Amino acid sequence: MEKIKEQFSNLQIAKQCTVTEDPTYLLNIDVSRGEGSQLVAVSCSNKSIRVYNRETLSLLREYSSHPGLLSGVRFAHTCESVLFSACSDGTVKCWDTRLATVEPVQLFRGYPLNVFISFDISCHDLIVCAGTEKVEEDSFMVFWDARVCTNSVPSSKDPLGVYSESHNDDITKIGFHPIKSNLVVSGSTDGLVNVFDIDKDNEDDALVATFNSDSSVSFIGWSGKDYQQVYCMTHDEGFCWWDLSQLETKEPITLLHIPDAREAGRIESTMLDYLIGGWYHETMDKFLVIGGTSTGNICLMDCGVDGLRSVGVLQGGHSAPIRSFCWNMVDNSLLTGGEDAQLLLWKSGAVDKAFGKKASMKTSSSVHQRLRVHQHSFKSKKNKHLCK
C-alpha cells in the first residue's frame, strides 16, 4: 500500500482539456484496451461523445447526434477502435473511431418504451446488455448479440431477449465480469444487486445471488483475486462489498457494509463528499475506492474488511465534483472528468505549464434532475436468493 500511496501522491497534471465552454458535465470515461492503445472516450451531459488521443488529449472524433441522454461509453475489449454507447432513446450504438463518418456502424434497438440508463459489453465482446428505467411496473435488462457485421452498410439488431423479474425499479448499473463472459451484475434503485450466469436457460436459473444494499444503487463493480467479489455504492454514499466465493460456505458473504462512507474518507481537514468508483489493483492485490469533494479534490482510500482507510488527496485540478476516472496501471497515470467540463491527465512528476484551475461551471443539469432515489422497502421478487 505504501507504493500505491507514493504513486498517488506524486501525481501532477500533465495535460488538461476543456471539453466545452458550455456548462457540461463529463459523465463517463473509458480508455481503449490492448498494448499501445491510445484512445480515450468521454460521454457528456450535452448528449455528445468525444474521442481523444490518450497522451495529448487532442480531439479525434465527436459524435453529437444523440436524441436522448447518454448512459456511458465502452470500448470493445478485442478491437481498440470499436466504441459502444447507450442512449435514453432506447438504442445502443456501435462506432468505428477509425472512420470519419458520424453515423454508427451498428445499431442495437430495444423494445418500445425502453429508456436505457445503463449498459455494458461482455469481456469477449459477445453480448451487450442495457438496463432500463422503470415504465409502469416493468424494468428490463435487454441483451443483444454484440458481434459487429463486417459489411459496409450500417446494420440494426433486435434483442436476443430480456430479464424482467429480478428488479422492480430503475436498473442504474450493468457490469460484466472482467474475465468470465457469462457473469453479469446489475444494480437498481430498488436497492438490490443481482449476479447472473447468462449461460443458463432462463432468468430464474440464471440468478446466482441477490444482495441488498439497503439503498438506491449508483455504482457497481468487481474486485478481488479472479474478481470473485462484488461491490456497490449508493446514491446516499453508502458502500457494500460481498464475496461470491463464500456462497457455498458458512463464511460471511458480506465483507463490508457502510451506510455512509463520507466520514470514513476524512483526511485531516478534508471531508469526503461523495464516492466515485472502485478500482482493483491486480498486481498488488489491493482494492481501492475513489471519492471526491465538492471543490474538486480527489480522495483515494484503501478498502479492507475493517473499513475504508484514507491513502491520500489530490488537489488543485478540478473546481467542481468529479464524475469519472480511469487509472492506467502500465504507467500509473490517471484520467479524471468532472462537472467543470475538464478532462485531466495526471502523471507522476508532470506539470502542464498551460494549466490553470478553471472556475466552476456547475449548473442544474438534466442528469441530476432525472435521478430518483426511492424510499421504500427493499424486497426481492426472488427472496430465496437473498444473501445477507
Overall domain count:
1
Low-confidence blocks of residues = 357-386
Count of beta strands: 30
Beta-strand content estimate: 35-45%
Helix content: under 10%
CATH class, named: Mainly Beta
Please tell me the overall pLDDT: 87
Structure description:
- There is one protein chain.
- The chain has 388 residues and is mostly beta strands.
- It has one domain (2-371): 7 Propeller (Methylamine Dehydrogenase, Chain H).
- It is built from three helices and 30 strands.
- It has helices spanning 2-9, 203-206, 366-369, and strands spanning 11-18, 26-31, 39-44, 49-53, 59-63, 70-75, 82-87, 91-96, 106-109, 116-121, 127-132, 141-145, 155-157, 161-163, 171-176, 183-188, 192-197, 207-212, 217-223, 229-234, 239-243, 254-258, 274-281, 286-292, 298-304, 307-314, 322-328, 333-338, 342-348, 386-387.
- The strands form seven sheets. Strands 6-7-8-9-13 form a five-stranded mixed beta sheet, with no helix packed on it. A five-stranded mixed beta sheet has the order 15-16-17-18-30.
- Mean pLDDT is 87; it is low at 357-386.
Descriptive key words:
388 residues; mainly beta; Methylamine Dehydrogenase, Chain H; five-stranded mixed beta sheet; 3 helices; 30 strands; 45% strand; globular; disordered C terminus
What's a quick, concise take on this entry?
This protein has helices at 2-9, 203-206, 366-369; strands at 11-18, 26-31, 39-44, 49-53, 59-63, 70-75, 82-87, 91-96, 106-109, 116-121, 127-132, 141-145, 155-157, 161-163, 171-176, 183-188, 192-197, 207-212, 217-223, 229-234, 239-243, 254-258, 274-281, 286-292, 298-304, 307-314, 322-328, 333-338, 342-348, 386-387. Helices cover 4% and strands 45% of the residues.
